[in-house]
Amino acid sequence: MRAARFAVLFGLVLVAAASRLVPHPPNLTPIAAMALFGGAYFPDKRAAFLVPLAAMFLSDLALGLHRGWPVVYGSFMLIVCIGFWLRRCRTALRVACAAVASSLLFFVVTNFDVWARGSLYPKTSEGLLACYAAAIPFFRNTLTGDVLYSAALFGGFALLERWWPAVREPTLR
User: Fold this and answer.
1) Which domain holds residue 6?
2) Is 50 exceeded by the pLDDT of residue 122?
3) What's the pLDDT at 172?
4) Whole-angstrom distance, CA of residue 51 vs CA of residue 146
5) How far is CA 116 from CA 65, 76, 108, 111, in A?
6) Is residue 113 part of a domain?
7) Are 154 and 97 in contact (CB under 8 A)?
């Protein structure tokens, strides 16, 4: 039973990662939702980090790695940790809050990196604010993607658990 559950979890993450390869608006991707989902569902914490990050890396090989990849991957590792918070209670409200928190975390961390390592903005508080302000249009897509893909992954898996006993979480007796 555990093998079927793991295979379905793994497959959902891979399908989500593959969706990065189809045309989409900038930042409207499933990556943060995959990290959140991995943290919430994979019982082995190593798999919770490894599966979403490996899926992201595979899609990045097709898309091309970028200069800020270490910070992006680090932010997704933090999002996996937010997913750990969902392990005991995965209600729609908690998933929605975690998706919004994931979007905010990604926005703050990655745009700080753009400001700190880039040359577009002066290294002042005004420059940092300008960097964040310039990124707001992308944040809308990030938030939309994180919420929609989280709803699809968490909701879809909840339905699978209901309809297919082999993927249900093992219960202790």
Assistant:
1) 2-166
2) yes
3) 52
4) 18
5) 19, 19, 12, 8
6) yes
7) no
